[in-house]
Design a protein that fits this description.
The complex is a heterodimer of chains A (310) and B (451). In chain A, 67% of the residues lie in helices and 0% in strands. Chain A is built from twelve helices and no strands. In chain A, α3 (79-110) runs antiparallel to α9 (217-245) and α9 packs antiparallel against α12 (278-309). By secondary structure, chain B is an alpha/beta fold. Chain B has two domains: 48-171 and 341-396, D-Maltodextrin-Binding Protein, domain 2 (3-Layer(aba) Sandwich); 175-336 and 413-449, Periplasmic binding protein-like II (D-Maltodextrin-Binding Protein, domain 2, 3-Layer(aba) Sandwich). In chain B, α3 (78-94) packs antiparallel against α16 (364-373) and α15 (352-362) crosses α16. Classes of the chains: A mainly alpha (310), B alpha/beta (451).
Chain lengths: 310, 451
């Protein structure tokens, strides 16, 4: 091989096209399965019930109409969707705080006991159960017997203690919370595992130094541990927010969205496959994506920051 | 060395692209059921003279040995076995290979139809006849025997003047199940008029016997038992034409008559004096459990309004009970015409095998075989006199003598009305204002019926 004058050997230089070649398979897959369906959903959300005309065709004279955005009028202003938005908000507030708080608590406590891995395994176990399975299990826990016998665990306990049984899944004041408990039960293990990993990453010498200097355990936790694991907590919180916004299985299995427990994703399924309102289902899907995007963007930017630190 | 190194990644990525491209390329549209071109324009029985008269007059309509017939239906287990029993003469005679698929998931049918790969034949609800009206092959072009069906079975299957589907299996809903032994012991008699039913309910309540067992819970279909009950009340108070007018949109769902029916239902469904557990019991009891409560020991309730299938459920749960003495039913007194559920046969393709199936099932032989297999009721006139099971004989007579047959309102109006109707019932029983609940359902009804 004849020596060249270039500083970098030619073989190490990339042609203009090479990166694109590497990217191409991923791009093809993404276009086929994400970009195209996404754009098609957007298109369908502007169409009528069975994609035969624009959504404005569904307008009834004398009633409010958003023209081509008629499906979005339904997705944003209809009574059932308002219920769904409110319930999703409840889910976010209670389930995200519940899972992260319990996950952190258990991770911190388990860090200090000998049977740590056994304890964690038990807490993590529900994660291995499918949501549908968990829904069925908890449906039995919440079962309300209209007769004398209570086969539901909770109501059996209540009755044994002398109280009246509660119809957990149909009472509008408690049913959404009852469903959120199931979500927390499933997802706490996930939060615990990630937070536990972060806890192990807190340098032991700092903790030891603090304790030597006379800091109480609470001060150590509050002023050293928490700031150290804060980036992880943020990622866990945003991941959970995204998860909870998409919550579907638990609601579908346990109440079907009845009794005022409707959530966005369940409504999307019902519009699509029970009512065959393709346009409305697509509009709800678009709304759901739009709501999730900020959480995703934030999540990715935090991940990037963490990468940069490493 | 160098050359090979530089080429390797390119080759690999090219290979990957190739793989992906192949995977993504639209698969060559598989001709779903190959229709031999020569067979296509040969519908008349005359083209298959050798096959027509044999085996009790089964007409193969030109179907050849090895022709496949794909079907999608909701039946499974014993139901599927009975269907196979009914179809056996056809399969034996014509050599058709059945390719059935059983699912309760309507999404599957919808996905298949949208993807352009529908089954040859689907057995589903009336609403699908409207939903897929542009894709279905009319029954008369497939050789269906119109003469074997009463008008009220053909009309609901006719969309825009085209006869797109017919009910192969029916179940009557306008009946009440009870325990004759308990009735006898407690001195209750089967009511003959609606007023007598009302009086009986009050008498039971006064005796501290709970008259009704109700259960709305049924997964994502929660509420359907209530919509059946309310439609039966409408058949008593208003009659079948009123129900058909609701279906066509002429009568709004928040009409005074509907409201009255809800109030009659609600009076019973929300009060622990009239139903097990009151409103909470009605909401959280599964529809099957509601049936069992009438036959538990001691019985939790005296009566349950449930379709014909309830008898089979009682027999399964309490095998020692005997039909006629331990469990029986009576038609809702005063109801004008019956409400019924039916599985509708619809054809997405026109092939000789499809023609053979449609011809067979609508023939007198087909109706008789359906009745003999005991697969619920057949609206086919050929079924008369062929039922074996005593409960089916009684139900079959009711169906054969009825003056009208109204389909389920919620199953028939498309565009989500069924769900809206259930929601109205569930919300009403759960304490929501009745006017608001009905207005919400009426809004969906209006959207679905105005074109």
């Amino acid at each position: 091989m004849a020596a060249k004058t270039e500083q970098v050997p030619k073989i190490m230089q990339q042609g203009r096209l090479t990166p694109w070649l590497y990217l191409l398979p991923a791009l093809v897959v993404m276009t086929t399965f994400i970009v195209y369906p996404g754009l098609n959903t957007l298109y369908l959300s502007l169409r009528n019930i069975d994609d035969t005309a624009w959504a404005s065709a569904a307008c009834i004279t004398g009633q409010p109409c958003w023209g081509i955005f008629e499906n979005f009028r339904y997705a944003l202003t209809s009574e059932i969707m308002q219920t769904a938005f409110l319930n999703n908000l409840k889910w976010i507030l209670l389930m995200v705080s519940g899972t992260v708080f319990l996950g952190l608590l258990i991770a911190t406590l388990a860090d200090r006991v000998r049977y740590e891995s056994a304890a964690k395994a038990i807490i993590f176990m529900p994660m291995a159960i499918s949501f549908v399975g968990a829904g069925v299990i908890w449906k039995f826990v919440y079962d309300y017997g209209s007769g004398q016998v209570q086969i539901g665990l909770l109501n059996a306990l209540l009755v044994a203690l002398g109280g009246p049984p509660v119809s957990w899944l149909t009472e509008p004041q408690v049913n959404t919370v009852a469903l959120i408990v199931v979500g927390v039960w499933i997802w706490t293990g996930f939060c615990m595992t990630i937070l536990a990993a972060a806890l192990k990453g807190v340098p032991a010498d700092i903790l030891e130094a603090a304790r030597t200097d006379g800091a109480t355990e609470w001060q150590v936790f509050r002023q050293i541990t928490v700031p150290h694991i804060m980036p992880t907590v943020t990622v866990v919180v945003t991941t959970m927010v995204i998860n909870v916004l998409k919550i579907f299985d638990i609601v579908y299995v346990m109440t079907g969205g009845n009794y005022g427990t409707e959530v966005i994703a369940n409504r999307m399924y019902i519009e699509m496959y029970t009512s065959f309102q393709t346009g409305r289902a697509a509009a709800i899907a678009v709304v759901l994506i739009v709501v999730i995007i900020p959480a995703m963007v934030y999540n990715i930017s935090r991940l990037r920051e963490q990468e940069a630190i490493r | 060395m160098l050359d090979r190194k530089s080429i390797a990644p390119v080759v690999v990525s090219l290979l990957l692209i190739g793989l992906v491209a192949v995977a993504c390329a639209p698969a060559p549209t598989p001709a779903p059921t190959p229709v031999p071109p020569t067979q296509a324009p040969a519908p008349q029985p005359t083209t298959a003279p050798t096959a027509a008269p044999a085996a009790g007059g089964i007409d193969c309509a030109g179907a050849k040995k090895g022709d496949t017939l794909s079907m999608l239906y909701q039946w499974s287990g014993q139901e599927e076995a009975r269907l196979n029993e009914i179809l056996k003469p056809l399969v034996d005679q014509c050599g058709i290979v059945l390719k059935p698929e059983s699912t309760r998931d309507q999404a599957l049918l919808d996905t298949k139809v949208k993807a352009g790969t529908p089954p040859d034949i689907a057995f589903w609800n009336t609403a699908q006849l409207v939903q897929y009206k542009d894709k279905l092959v009319p029954m008369d072009t497939l050789g269906a025997n119109r003469g074997n069906y009463a008008d009220f079975f053909v009309t609901p299957g006719t969309v825009d003047g085209k006869w797109l589907g017919l009910p192969v299996k029916a179940d009557i809903k306008t009946i009440i199940w009870y325990d004759p032994a308990v009735f006898k012991a407690k001195g209750y008699t089967v009511p003959k008029t609606w007023d007598e039913l009302n009086a009986l309910v009050e008498k039971m309540a006064a005796n501290k016997d709970v008259p009704w067992s109700m259960g709305l819970e049924s997964g994502d279909a929660t509420g359907w038992t209530g919509s059946d009950f309310i439609q039966d009340i409408l058949l008593v108070t208003k009659g079948p034409q009123y129900v058909l007018d609701i279906i066509s949109g002429k009568v709004p769902y928040n009409d005074a008559g509907v409201k009255q029916a809800y109030e009659i239902y609600g009076k019973w469904a929300k009060d622990p004096k009239y139903t097990v557990g009151g409103a909470k019991g009605t909401l959280s009891t599964a529809f099957l459990d509601a049936i069992y409560k009438v036959y538990s020991d001691p019985p939790e309730a005296m009566m349950v309004k449930q379709s014909g299938f309830a008898g089979g459920e009682v027999a399964k749960k309490y095998p020692s009970l005997k039909y006629g003495t331990d469990y029986d039913f009576f038609a809702i007194p005063g109801a004008q015409g019956l409400q019924g559920g039916a599985d509708w046969m619809m054809a997405f393709k026109d092939t000789p095998a499809v023609r053979a199936l449609v011809t067979y099932l609508t023939s007198t032989t087909g109706g008789a075989n359906w009745a003999k297999a005991g697969f619920d009721l057949s609206p086919n006139k050929g079924a008369a006199g062929n039922y074996q099971d005593p409960a089916l004989i009684k139900k079959g007579e009711a169906l054969a003598n009825t003056k009208g047959f109204t389909p389920d309102i919620g199953d028939t109006i498309p565009g989500g009305f069924g769900k809206a109707e259930w929601t109205a019932i569930v919300d009403y029983v759960n304490g929501k204002d009745l006017d608001a609940a009905l207005a919400a359902a009426a809004k969906v009804q209006k959207e679905a019926t105005t074109k």
